[in-house]
Write a structure and sequence with these properties.
The protein is of the alpha+beta class. 37% of the residues lie in helices and 24% in strands. The longest helix is centred in the first third of the chain and has 23 residues.
């Protein structure tokens, strides 16, 4: 059976648009404009891909990227915001090198979307999650990275934000609450290097099951809740004792709806 043309995924969508490009292109030779856009977009693509994202499409002077397809990560919202901040640094450096005054407006949103090919074209993201990211971009001031509440909730431990007033957007019944990313928080310890807190009960249960002869265990929870950290701590405790053969498996969000998907990876 062939794979479906599209599938539902939780994606983080980054939508960016150039400010000042139209007036610039009106006073420059088309070849010079093409050279500028090509040079800038190459740098923006590199920033996106550095953090694990995929450029979905270039639309005129806009760039749309997705985090969560074709490869998903537990921290896709954080990766997207870090990419957005790096994109702003890249355009600032580009302006300095080329003596230009371009600016990026960036909007980021996380939500369920369709991912796949339409009419045989390359894979793309579709749905309301994309529309909201584009609306965030339209609300952002030049030079800013604006995110939705869902993105802020998933990343506030690592990113400094400034809350903005809720706004009513055309075509939507509810207001949109947005947050402007100010930068990464200083002194935040990377995951896995800090002490292990708050999961002693779960860890104890895993160790007891191991001592009793082992068991098949599924660790489930929302992204960022600490599943990987718990599993890593459990394996670390085992390695501190007598060595034994172990196989560990991870499952990204795109496999969440596959029956026995994690078990299938082990056999």
């Amino acid at each position: 059976m062939s794979a479906p043309a599209t599938e539902r995924r939780i994606l983080t969508v980054v939508f960016s648009d150039l400010s000042g490009f139209t007036s610039l292109s009106e006073h420059m030779d088309p070849e010079d404009v093409t050279d500028i856009i090509d040079g800038l977009f190459r740098r923006l693509r590199a920033a996106i891909e550095k953090h694990g994202g995929t450029v979905d499409k270039f639309i005129g002077d806009a760039v749309m990227a997705v985090f969560g397809a074709p490869t998903a990560h537990e921290d896709d919202p954080l990766r997207a915001v870090k990419a957005g901040l790096e994109m702003q640094r890249e355009i600032a450096a580009f302006n300095g090198e080329r003596k230009l005054d371009l600016a990026l407006r960036i909007g980021i949103n996380t939500g369920e979307a369709l991912w796949g090919s339409v009419a045989g074209d390359r894979a793309t993201a579709m749905g309301d999650a994309v529309n909201v990211a584009q609306r965030m971009e339209a609300l952002a001031r030049p030079g800013a990275v604006l995110v939705t509440r869902g993105v802020e909730r998933a990343t506030f431990r690592r990113i400094e934000y400034r809350a903005l007033e809720a706004v009513q957007v055309k075509g939507r019944t509810e207001t949109l609450v947005s947050f402007e990313a100010a930068g990464e928080k200083a002194g935040v310890v990377e995951a896995g290097s800090a002490g292990f807190f708050g999961r002693d009960e779960e860890l104890t249960r895993l160790l007891e099951m191991h001592r009793a002869g082992g068991a098949l265990v599924a660790i489930e929870g929302e992204a960022g809740i600490g599943k990987s950290r718990l599993a890593a701590e459990f394996l670390a405790r085992l390695r501190a004792g007598a060595p034994a053969p172990w196989t560990a498996s991870g499952r990204a969000p795109e496999g969440g709806k596959i029956p026995l998907g994690a078990l299938a990876d082990l056999v």
